[in-house]
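Hi support team,

I submitted a single chain yesterday and got back a structure, but I'm not sure I'm reading the token output correctly. Could someone confirm the output below corresponds to the sequence I sent? I've pasted both exactly as they appear in my results page.

Thanks,
R.
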Amino acid sequence: MAYTSQAGRTPMNARLVVIASSVEDLRDKLNQWITLGKNKDIHPGAGPAELNDVFYGNIREVQYNAGDLIEGPAGKAFLADLLANNDLEKLARLWILGVEIDWSLLRRDTVPRKISLPTYPFAKERYWVRTDQQALASRAVQKNVLDTRRVTARERTEEKRKTYYASQWTLRSIAVPKEKPAVGPMLMLDVSDELFLTMKEQLQNASCSDPIVLVKPGKSFQEIGPNIYIIDPEREEHFHELIQNLKGKALLPRVILHHCSEVCNLEVKEQVTQHLNNGVYELFYLSKALMKEKQQVPLRFLSVLSSHSEGTTPLGTALGGFFKTLTLENPRYLAKVVDVQSGSGNEEMPLSEKANLVWEEIYEEDWTAQEIRYRNYMDEGKQGQARYISQLVSHTPVERELSALPLKQNNVYLITGGLGGLGLIFAEYLAKKFQSKLVLVGRSVPGVKQEEKLRQLKGHGAEILVVQADISKWEDTERVVREARARFSEINGVIHAAGVNRDSFIFNKTSEEMKAVLASKIYGTINLDVATGEEKLDFFVLFSSIAGVMGNLGQSDYAYGNHFLDSFAETRETLRKAEKRSGRTVSIDWPLWDEGGMRISKDDIALLEKQVGLSPLPTQDGIQYWEDFLRSNGAQGIALYGTPSKIAASIAQKQVVAHKNVAAPAASIDAAVLFARQVSCWPDQCRSRSGRALPLLLSRCLQEGPTESLEGCRSSRRIADGARLRSESPSPALRAEGR
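Hi R., thanks for writing in. Yes, this is the structure output for that exact sequence:
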């Protein structure tokens, strides 16, 4: 009977696998599965979570079909090995995800034969269709065919073009369940114990027993009180020691609460460094330590910030970029940043009110929104807090609303990363169109090709000053501005296009790599702003990346750094309006450029266009974006070039997919499903030419869960046949040109 059901019928979309040792065992498991289906909706992946050795899936409903992962000789060899070793559980998991398996190759003790099984039951009811109904049905079919052809024709004729997006804050109330669920152990990162004590007291008053562990910064690792620790945020090993300590007490956290209420003066380097250590680095080290434990439960990260009414806290809000990447690399993780504005007179919200707000955000049923702001408002003389969420929305620039282009003939423009891909594109644009005086800043001496390009720029009428400097160092930045003023007497505009990439999954990333990425993004931006603070600038433009607003696999630091640029632009605009800076600030989130410094394969480009509609940005369209963003009133512009309908659908899907705040059992998130989700983000050549490494990774995922095996397995850094699944190689769609 088992052999006939495997080899004697065509596989359907809905698939059920029962691993049984006898007819009685089969009968019992089928009855249990039927009962389970009556009590709750059965969905792909639910079987293994609720019932041992029962696997159910419908490949039409599963978002990620694993069939294309097991193709070619390596994939067939992998399946043959599973069949030869009777690894029934892995075979079952793969089959319900769409992998076609030749069950006749399964190793058996005897030679089976097919038998006759009952056919499907049919209801013995007659339905006669009248002629007039038949005519109506025929016309309906014809209309459907015509509509389908119209849609197909529209898709076929839709041309690639520029689309404009922006981050918009939308008023949105919070959805909190009436019955507050248990949240499990909570780990709080804070510099003081005030909020900790308030939340702990509220728990006790509500007769809740969920433990809260407080971790404060210090110079050593020690437990200074019941569930209160101090830790050196600059030492990664302390976080691993902390997690081991909590594990021994059965206190591994289910919720991570990061709280920052201190104000950071961005012009004081020591304060910036301290905020980085107590913010993104602390969460980075903690994430790595938690990943090492391979927790099989959903884990929630919540960062709560305090800002003043006159602006945001860029170092804090930039965690939105880090969290977006964290949740991409770890589908079991949920994360969001909550920015709470202080009251009138910059008085911080009372602790009891803030604690209530934090509990509501923790209990929220839907964690779709990853960036949230609470802003003050006055109602009949009383001050209240309105809750807003960040969303990506498209818009079309209206010519009459655009101001004049702030570029003039023979003006002086400083470009960091000036010898890189985008730096030289914009240097050529300014030289040709405005015969500008250009200060090109780079860390290296110009090479032969760059020297030739510099001669071409001079041929267009530009005056060129090349300065070798590292703008992440204050002394170098100050020297750049001093030399520029000595040569040209003034600086009229700044383009910050400098940056580096050190891409790898969070599990493998080192603090040295992260520091290298953040150096130019954080310290370089601040140094440039301070050094040009007295200049009468016409503009101060930051070249960011769409990774900052979407996140990107392997680029947690890069996403954080570029999100910082977006937030910093908003902060600097506040200073400009207060007449503390001159020149409007714009952060432009670039996609991949067609003629920029980065090159990817044609297969990768085809994959991007197919999956999300993004195409490499032609230079002329990039220049048009630049001019439109410069003439607009926004502090941020997001440039997405390609097929508009596909881009819109992709963004809508990212924002609509809800993350329900439920304490699901570990196995309810099927390892093979998560593996398929992650592999779908890999470049096409990595999936199609992965050789023997892909089956190895898949096998490990089915055993351990994909997050740990993908991040922990060093073989994922180089796969067979020269195809690279580098931790240094992000998804190309979200990479920024010119850094």
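A quick pointer for reading it: The longest strand covers residues 382-395. Let us know if anything else looks off.

Best,
Support desk
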